[in-house]
Amino acid sequence: MASYLLDAISIQLFVSLIILVVEVLAVHIGLVVCLIKFRYYRGKYQTLKDLKKFKDFVSKEVKPLVETTDSEAQSDESCFDNNGYLSIIKEKIVEKSFPLHDIAGEQHQQHPLESRKVSVAPSADTYGEGYVNEEMYTFSHPNNKYQTDDVQYQIEEGPPQYDEYNGQQQASYLDEPSQFSGIDTEKMVDFSRDQLDVDREEIATRTGADKLWVPNGFHGKTTVLNLYVTQLITSSQLQQLHLGQIGLEEIMNYTWRFLYGDSPVGGVLDIKTRETYNVSEAFEKGLLSKKQAIMLLEAQACLACMINPKSGEKLRVEDALIAGYVSAKFKRHLLLAEQAVFGFEAVDGQILSLFDAMKLGMVPQGMAYRIMEVQFVTGGLICPRRRHRVPTNVALHSGLIDTQTLGVLQNRQSGESYRKLYDTAQDDPESGFRVIYIDPASAVPKEPKSIDHTMFDEPVQHFNTGNKLETLAQSGMIDQAILQKFKKGEIDESAVKEKLMPFVGGSGAIGGVLHKESGQIYSFAEALELRLIKRSVAIEFMQAQIATGGLINPKTGEKTSLQNGISYNWVPKIFEHTLLEAERAYKGFTLAGHSGPVPLVEAIRVGIVGEMQGTRFLEAQVATGGLVDPAYGYRIPLDMAKSQNLVDNRVMGLLTPETSEQKGYIDPQTGENKTYEELLSACAKRNNIPLLQVTDRANQITQNQMVFIG
Predict the structure, then answer these.
(1) With left for phi above 0 and alpha for psi between -120 and 50, is residue 428 left, alpha or beta?
(2) Which of 122, 148, 496, 569 could form a disulfide with 128 if both were Cys (CB 3.0 to 4.6 A apart)?
């Protein structure tokens, strides 16, 4: 019975296989038939298409021959020469140079669109004379060529080549009379679609405006395309440039204020001696206050125009520093201001405007407002991507400013604003720059600063006591030789401050986080609220800030105490008790039997603060300059503290971990244990503030993380 069943199944399988093979063959045969039909009908369609072309050619109206004195030359057979097409004279462009000179005196590169096109059509076997741009040219054309000094015409055999799309566009210009009559219609472009920036950019590109450059007032150049997209030139003006009716000189005349603008205040004129000084010299001579000097220098820097009124030079900040007419102590501030012209580089390499950089915290808000005011006063906001100034309506449309910020700038109190200084300045006939006329007798004299050669009075945040230089020298922070020279008056106070400031203020702690995807800057409290970091990580880094001097606003760099930070809403009040311990690590602990504040190292030794938490505070202090002495507020480097027996071997072991488990901080990006110094070195900097780079938290379990289930 089983054998019969197997035979039946085998027969059924065999039949099914035969049916499948037949179906596959049928499908293949059908595909072959379809392919044959497709080729047949395609050939038939091509034949009909060629026949239609032939009928159109035969039915085409042929213009009658022009009567000439040489009737024999126009025989019936002449129309069939050159395969039935008449000779076509192709025009070649006469390159007529119109050199443009920028401020630096460099010759502008001539572009083909500035050339003038002429049409000459003498008879086939005569010589002729013609006038091109009021100059006479004599034509000789052996071998079907017309030759002049600047022009060469070649007779090309064969049918003309037509662009169907261009022909349709040209029809609208040919149907109606205009000022462009007589112009080669192949160069005409449809300028009617110029409402959107994208369309204007496409139109400018088709006319070649993206390859036409004009100089600007920022030691660079911009394209005519940029001028057209920002509506500084009209469609009619671009069309005239495209057709060769105007040149780049006219375009520069139309847009001069937005290319160059007005020069900032260049210096000061002493009305008694009639001597002109640059801003730095005027400040050194007491003709300007420090606030005025910084405002004037900042205004020059944000226009990339550091002015020396004596020589007439206008340089960038770096070049002005090398030339020596800008003080080096303003370098960092002026370089930041100069980026308002050329743009601020974001994390992803994108160039940001001043307004965008201000929103991201890369520029302090007050400084950004001052720079915007300067640019408005001297001609308009500068677009770093377009490399020229723009009108206010275009600035609003392009996102270079918003209506709220514009209202703030318009309603600013005059006070000692830049507009007030600019309005009081006058044009100097000798230098050509605007200068402020000042009478030395009316200038506020500087009060002489009394110098105590025994004290270092530079203020330290949260500490009001001065530091004796002898004490600092005994601590090894300053060389005894330098101290003796200072006491004798052989070196000035600035040299001593330069040596001591790293020990007084320390370097900056990690101020916040930088979100990689958006480029936004957040404080640790804000990052916690956005769930970019964990609560424990946020608390540890806020404690590190306070243990090194105070809470930090990562957008402005401002530093303040814990109580002020809570009142400013920098941190939630619920964190106050947790962060108080860190504030004591900076200001000192209170311990019975000690008259003054107890330093953190001693507090760890006697058990006032936990060893793990105290080690994290010490790590942050060492990484930012050294251990804090709460009695005076200055820092002591770790190696110096060890040499003076201020730390024992046990504390040194805590600060030099051998395994990752002994490191006190967690990298919020990877979840790995690291020292504060390792995290600080890996930070990105914005406005010289170290920031941890983070991304959106992924739902992943990394190595060394503990997971609790249930």
Answers:
(1) beta
(2) 122
16-72 pLDDT, tens digit per residue, is: 889 989 999 999 899 899 888 888 887 777 777 766 666 665 565 555 544 444 444
Dihedrals phi, psi of 502, to nearest 5 degrees: -60, -30
655 shares its domain with 524 = yes
161 is a domain residue = no
- Within its chain, how far is the Cα of 355 from the centroid? 11
Q: Please give the model's pTM, rounded to 2 decimal places.
A: 0.48
Same domain, 498 and 425: no
686 and 542 housed in the same domain = yes
Q: Is the residue at 48 inside a domain?
A: no
Q: From residue 283, give the alpha-carbon distance in Å to each of 264, 309, 325, 371, 665.
A: 17, 15, 12, 21, 47
CB 683 within 8 A of CB 631: no
Within this chain, do residues 326 and 342 fall inside the same structural domain, yes or no? yes
Given a cut of 60, is residue 533 above it in pLDDT? yes
Structural domain count, the chain: 5
325-376, pLDDT tens digit by residue? 888 888 888 999 999 999 998 766 788 999 988 887 788 888 899 999 999 9
State the maximum Cα–Cα separation within the chain, in Å, rounded to a whole number: 133
CA pseudo-torsion sign 269, 273, 278, 284: negative
Examine residue 7 and state whether it is found in any structural domain, yes or no. no
Structural domain boundaries, residue 669: 512-694
In this structure, the answer to whether residues 292 and 229 fall within a common structural domain is: no
Query: Looking at this protein, which amino acid is placed at residue 609?
Result: V
Model pLDDT, residue 61: 54
For residue range 582-626, what is the model confidence (pLDDT) as tens digits?
A: 998 888 888 777 777 888 888 888 888 888 888 899 999 988 888
Closest CA to 706 of 664, 671, 665, 679: 671
Summarize pLDDT for 225-269 with one digit per residue, the tens: 999 999 999 999 998 999 899 999 999 999 999 999 999 999 999
Tokens 């008056």 sit on residue: 489
Q: What is the CATH number of the domain that holds 426?
A: 3.90.1290.10
